Amino acid sequence: MIEQLLIEGLAIGACYGLFGVAVAIIYKTSEVVNFAQGEMGMIATFVAYHILTVYNVPFWLAFVITMVFALALGMLIEICFLRPAKDPTVLGLIIITLGAEMLLMGLAGWKWGAEQKDFPFLLSVQKTHEILPGLLLNEWSMGVFVLTAVIMVFLFLFFRYSRLGIAMRATQQNENAAKIMGIKVERVFSITWAMSSLIGAVAAMFFAARSVLDPNFMMEPFMRAFAAAVLGGLTSIPGVVIGGILLGIIENFFGYAWPEWKPIVAFVVIIVIITVRPSGLFARHYVKKV
Amino acid sequence: MDMKRDYYEDIELFSSGTILFWSVAFLVLLFTLPLYIPSYNIYLLNIILVHVILAVGLNILVGYTGQISLGHAGFFAIGAYGTALLMMHLHMPFLPALIVAGLIAAFFGFIIGLPALRLEGPYLAIATLGFGLTIMHIIGRWEIFGGRMGITTPPLDLGLPGSAYSLVIEGDVKIYYLILVISVLMVIGARNLMKTRVGRAFVAIRDDDIAAEVMGVNLTVYKTMSFAVSAFYAGVAGGLYAFVVGFFDPFTFNLILSIIFLVMVVVGGLGSILGAVMGAALITYLQFDLLKNVEELPYLGEFLVLISRKWLTVIGLANFGSIALGLIMLGIVIFEPLGMFGIWIRIKKYWKTWPF
Fold first, then answer.
1. Domain range spanning residue A80?
2. Same-domain check for residues B97 and B186
3. Which helix (H) or strand (E) segment is B212 a member of?
């Protein structure tokens, strides 16, 4: 029983971690906390649903189209909403992303209505395989594990070796110095948003397969993922995934013992952790200069 | 004109005769308003006044002290449930119950202020957001709070309930006068607070907390105090809100409500009492009146129904309110970061210096 709870917690935690990575990539590069991340994923999932149900295309094609849409959406939001703001404060940035969230949620409700739909996903939560004697693992979890591993390795290589990844890190460390070095900072931001939107959209489809599809379905997972990202320290990508996994496991065990208090355990954990370690578990704490 | 020559000029309530005149005129207008407008609008006015109290309190925290709160719906809920339950179970009169509920909210504000000493920006946002959601879930699951079904408020009794000194207030108009008096007191209180040592300490923390600490401002005391004061305002607003609507459930106090509160302050103008009042009035009016029946908007309504028929769904048109709110939030930060107060300042300058 314990192994079963552990592995399920691990799977949902990896999914939180994956979505948290999407939040962390943007924060890492531009110090913007993207509260619209959940709704960006939600819209992308609705687009996939729309393509799948209305045009009856195979899943892989719908997936590819959705990914292109997610890339465009992330870039569009950066260009339309964040770029025009001149020297915004931290609060200003939070308001911008919250505004984008309300806008996207309203649009999705307008187009697809509030009723709950089933998202036809490739991997099902019901189909389970016995991987070890007595230990069941469903296809959904397998997909999450593989995907998280692939994306982690990709991001590691990307930030370590690719020119673009190095430019992103340079932008994060010092925007002005990066500009002097010939990096087009604005373009870097757009690409960051596009990348983050893409990862978020993939994770959102996984969440949709687990629950139902409606304009609010990403609110709860987003807050968990955000909590996981803060838990791991918003600037460290492996930290975010570990934070997500920790949160998933804690939540699953807690939910087994006291099911009615499951929704708040994530926030209690997060408030306790950031009170003790304000920058999260794995990020270095920078002291502010006056 | 705007130059302060001595300290007493800085702390006086009305800085000029013109402001005194218009303030008194505005108050007279507010007190006689029920004579000219229909009763549905009185209900709307009540909600506006409640939100004004809340926005002024939130502005003390966000605009003056520079902290972020995405959990004010939690304090609002504590005030609403606190007042109603104190009256139902302990049979307290309304005003003491309201103040005690406000103090309970202030205590929770103090508790949230403690981790806030070490957190800033996004980390503070997630901590307060978590607090607000935790409160909502706890209320939704505890039987004493009425659970998911919500509770109906008891009759609003200013005297001792069930005795000869009972003084029950009924009807929107009477509640309006009660809320009006309380909100005027609270707004003047906030304005005066900002001119004291405490208010200046808040502003110093906003501008630079480390510099403020070096100058001798005790961050522990003043940051927690700012949270507590702001939570007290939210608690009182919540207590009044409970009696304006008469019935509420835990899901009234969700994250969207916290966001809307923050929007009121930002749209009105950070760090300005007048701005908070204007922002609360505008956003509440939009939310509860103008955007409630989108189809009936002049010109725009028909056009929206047309596009809904063609590409979207007509039933989903109710979501237009959310879209409009999102656009307002984006527009304010991009084009007018000072909010409505910034527009007001510009208009004032234009008229004062005309024709130059």
1. 2-114+132-276
2. yes
3. helix B209-214
pLDDT tens, residue by residue, B133-191: 888 888 888 777 777 778 888 888 777 776 767 777 778 888 899 999 999 999 999 99
Identify the domain containing residue B256 by its residue range. Answer: 39-290
Whether the CA torsion A145, A150, A153, A158 is positive or negative: it is negative
**Helix A2-30 with A219-232: angle, nearest 10 deg:** 80
Its ipTM equals: 0.87
Instruction: Give pTM, 2 decimals.
Output: 0.90
Report the CATH number at residue A271: 1.10.3470
CB contacts of B259 in chain A (<8 Å) are 98, 102
Q: How far is B337 from chain A (nearest CA, A)?
A: 8
| Nearest to A190, CA basis, from A97, A82, A59, A287 | A82
Closest residue to A110, CB basis, from B138, B319, B333: B319
Same domain for B307 and B267: no
Number of domains in chain A: 1
- pLDDT tens per residue, range A243-260: 899 999 988 888 888 887
Which of B239, B263, B290 delimits the end of a domain?
B290
Mean of the per-residue pLDDT values of chain B:
87
Interface size A-B, in CB pairs within 8 Å, comes to: 156
- The residue among B266, B314, B329 with the most chain A CBs within 10 A of its CB, best to mutate, is B329
- Is residue A123 situated within a structural domain? no
Question: Into how many domains does chain B fold?
Answer: 2
Residue of B nearest to A272 (CA): B115
User: Is A288 among the domain residues?
Assistant: no
Shared domain for B277 and B351, answered yes or no, is: no
How many H-runs (helices) and E-runs (strands) does chain A carry? 11, 2
Burial A87-96 (b: 16+ CB within 10 A, else e): ebebbbbbbb
Window 119-158 of A, Cβ < 8 Å to B: none
* DSSP state string for A156-182: HHHHHH-HHHHHHHHHHH-HHHHHHTT
Q: How far apart are CA B218 and CA B227, in angstroms?
A: 14
Whether residue B220 sits in one domain with residue B319: no
- Nearest-CA neighbor of A282 among A241, A247, A236, A226? A236
